[in-house]
Specification:
Layout lengths: L6 H17 L4 H17 L1 H12 L4 H27 L2 E4 L8 E8 L2 E5 L7 H12 L3 E5 L5 H14 L5 E3 L4 H8 L5 E5 L2 H11 L6 E4 L5 E4 L5 H13 L11 E5 L3 H16 L15 H16 L3 E4 L13 E4 L6 H4 L6 E7 L2 H9 L6 E5 L3 H10 L4 E4 L20 E2 L4 H7 L1 E8 L15 H10 L2
Parallel strand pairs: 3-4, 3-6, 4-5, 6-7, 8-9, 8-13, 9-12, 11-12, 13-14
Antiparallel strand pairs: 1-2, 2-16, 7-15, 10-11
Helix pairs in contact: 2-4, 2-6, 3-4, 3-6, 4-5, 4-15, 5-15, 9-10
Length: about 475
Amino acid sequence: MDTTTNSTDLNTTLARLRAAQKRIVPDYAQRMNDLKRLRAAFKARSEEFAAAMSADFGRRSRHESLLSDTFTVLKEIDYTRAHLRGWMRSRRALADWLFWPATTQVRYQPLGVVGIIAPWNYPVNLALKPLIAAIAAGNHVMLKPSEHTPRTSELLKALLAEVFPADRVAVVLGGPEVAAAFSALPLDHLFFTGSTAVGRKVMAAAAPNLTPVTLELGGKSPAIVAPDYPIATAVDRIAAGKFLNAGQTCIAPDYVLLPKASIPAFVEEMKKYLARHYGGDIVANPDYSSIVNAGQYSRLKGYLDQAHAAGAKIVELAAGDAGQRVLPPTLVLDAREDLALMQDEIFGPILPLVGVDSVDAAIDYVNARPRPLALYHFDRDRARTRRVLERTIAGGVSVNDTVMHFAQSALPFGGIGPSGMGAYHGRAGFLALSKAKPVLYQARWTSMKLMRPPYGKVADFLVRFLTR
């Protein structure tokens, strides 16, 4: 479908997928074969996808695309295929003792037709990882990729048409109006990745149909640096997570909480990091990505202009280029709390530094704000680290690193509150897009016969015993 997709087209597509899903539920062999063919076809086009993403962004690091959008997808397919048989296996157990000799079972069944709305920042990873979970769970899929990365979206459409029949996976293209109509479809599950603001609209659109939703959103993910943690190591790992994809990452460190006395050293180490990894010239460096479009670039510049006007110290770590939408890595010091960059998810290579007196003060700072999608704590004191983990709530955590928890297939990934609901990756994704159906198998004789009217002395005894 093209940008002329309308609500009639969407409903027709959904009806086709639903009819096919009711005819045949993919079994284990079919799901394994689907994932195998998807892997082969995607791997064959990996360089094509990297080039398409670079063209969509204006410039995007080839290596970062191959790592974050290609490697992670291939790894997810491999992990899923290695564990799928066990995930699909029904679980049987004895019933509660009162109901003996009955037995129970949990069976995992596909939900039906799963809708996926994918974002632009990792347009392949965040489209195909949910799709892998949906296929592994035996569902049929409608996918709406982002209009902000049109070349990548067209390539996704071509890839999935090559791998799947049209009544198994359908890709619909279009802008916000298509996404709004998509969200209002009577799907069996809706999976959305994007901003918190749009996530609210998606959830509201899904509510009239009581469509269950998984929302992978964002928020301001803090990094906490303990007083005695080596600043050079903290900078190296925070910068790696922050400047990946030029900060256009939902789990990028959004701001750093550290001792006030450590801020000058942090700034100096950041300068060294840029010189070491980018040579000081990010405009000509293909390893540093552009901001995806003029609107996003203008938004980020607006944050910096407002902060500068309010008296914050702006430290540009390199020279940028507005024409190519290359926004330099930038530190912001002494920013007021009411500034937009201290309230909104930054989603770019801007990093405010906030001085705090202690790790406990950092915990209080985090807890006074909406729960983040990710939290990063840098510390060698295990007791203090345990205190941070116990007293804060976040979608996920990396200790002494950033973003790496996302790459763990065995860990569920998802937010909480304003940063999202539900989780996926690995078995968590299979469970999220499956119906765990409970079944009780009654025996030929059942003790429940003793609890049927007319109630007498036996029933009186049993009720006293059970409610003692």
